[in-house]
Amino acid sequence: MDFKTQKEAQEWRLRMLADFGKGSITVNSTMTFKKFLDDYFIPDYKSQVRKRTFDMTQSKFKRLSFFENMKLSDIQAPHVKKWQNAMFIEGLSNNYIRSVHQMLQQIFDLAVKLGMLSNNVAKTVGNVKKTVLKLIFGR
Fold this sequence. Notes:
Layout: H1 6-22, H2 33-48, H3 51-63, H4 77-89, H5 94-113, H6 121-125
Helix pairs in contact: 1-2
């Protein structure tokens, strides 16, 4: 969904949450991760952040393609761990993997909030350790 203004996006978000509360939206156990991302998370996220922040996040969404065709309800801890390990193998930095994992946690947080998941599997697995850079000064 594309919104022309932030106000328009916020109004859509409020309507969506109200409809869910009234039972107009029902939990769909066959919903794929991609469908949830496209129909719920991205419009919600887009309504909460500035355009520049949203644009900077696009590459992180692409990193989530690992889960794209999986049913939201079928994603388990081993899947998340395998996804993290695949990014390590690619040679991505711990800090970048951490930021993408945080995005995954936000996605699952919304699914839990909307009653589509009972728990956040990304939080269960946990994020990767932060890399601390050490500066060594000349002797």
